[in-house]
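Before going further, learn to read the protein records used in this course. The integers have meaning only within a learned vocabulary of local backbone shapes. To see the layout at work, look at the sequence and tokens printed below.
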Amino acid sequence: MSSPLSSKSPWLTLGGLVLLQSVSVASSLYPAYSSILGKKFSISQVQVVDLIAAVETGKLFEFIPTAAANHLPPWAILLIGLLFGTVGHGVQYLYVAEKIQPSYWQMLLLCLLAGNSVCWIQTYCYVSALNNFNKNKNIAVLTSCYASLGREVYASLIQGIQGKIEFQNPSTYLLLTCVAPAAVGLVVVLIVGRSILAEQTETDVFPIAFALAVAAGVYAMLGNTVQPIKNMSSQLQVITLTLVIILPIAVPLVKAAHWLAMVRWRAKITPELPRVVATENSDSIVRVDGLNEEAGEDSKEEEVQVNQGMENVGNVELGDEHGVKNLMMSLNFWLFYLVNACGPMLGVIYVNNLPQILEAPSLIAVFAASGYCGRIFSVSIEEYTRRGLSMLSKPASIVIMMIPMSVSFFLLINSSKTGLYISTGVIGACTGAIREITTFKIAELFGPQNSVVNQNIILTNIPIGTLLFGHLDAINYKTGADGNDGICKGFECHHKTFIIWGSISAVGIVLSLILHLRTRKFYSSG
């Protein structure tokens, strides 16, 4: 019997990966930082929007680390991501600290590099999770959900350093974005190892891992709403949140206590027996290209289906492999694209513009926590589907999510504090849920082999929408600021924007319903 605290313990690996995921999206709080940057260095609101769009654009190049993962060891992928993040945020830190004076175009390139670093780090986490939990790929997806807690983690860290005065010193934020991912990444490399680990002996870790993920989400939500937790010292909040995130590490600790007790008990009643070393199965391979794994008979069947789909070039159907040409000619794909543009894209733009709408960091934390809960909810749907227990198809789930999202945008016009927090929470949850469902649905409808590229095409609506609607909101912001010393804070300055977003989201409900009707036969036959 091997020790549960072995370096190959899946729970130690899971704890390290989720902690790395939670600090990987260092650019997730960039909107809050950029608003301060605009004030300190006289950058216009339109220029601030362009910087945010550059960060989102950098995330579109996920296919580069995905392709590199087929040729480089996982630790090299991580080091590249850490290097990109350190340079991207580090140079900006020197700028804010007034050590250097880069041009605006250089700032745009640094934001692009910082955004792309997220892709490399998350690719490493996904590959490592697949190699350690290849009996259930949903574990890898579940670890990626922790990235949504990045806003909460960095907000807590900044509060722990500066107290309750959040985001007033952007240099502290940028310094953390350089140090935190690098420090955690190096520790995770030591835990996970630089080589691919063999298949773990754990039979079904998803229920426990999911329960721990839910616990982290519940604490993140309560931390922003329950007064006793909010009244805790900033340092204690940081420690508590970190412990909640790395709860998976507690599992091997409990098992280790039981293991030690069993070893001592067996030593007393039985003589020492010869040790038998079992050889590990090396047939399990993980291919990152297209997020397609080969881990046993199930994935071999998927590969056969992919090859069959490739033979039907020019006459593809739902579920077949779609090349770029077939994808561009698919009405279902463009419906899918527009649904995401009318839903999750608006949620991302909303949180990116929150610092300009209202200086309330707690709102960003509420959006992050609810987005995280929405993502793990979607993973649970996928897991139930895998076990044959799902009652709703993914397109039907998107329709259900789009309805409260549209209503919430219109409720923002009311401007009440309670309605503000509820609407932000609902928008965050729906955004997280739909984006996670999108990841599964792209591979199912358009084939798994090119799913990363297809997903990146879908996500182009985020930087495009950030530029379009961000500039529109900047115009409304400037109009509301006229005659008020250039300052306009509060939701009354953005009523027109909320009406536009709510109307677009309502169109998304209709489009998602059409997509559901068009794909209903495909899911019912599956």
About this structure: Residues 194-202, 273-314 have pLDDT under 50 and may be disordered. DSSP finds 23 helices and two strands in the chain. The first strand starts at residue 285 and ends at 286. Strands lie at 285-286, 293-294.
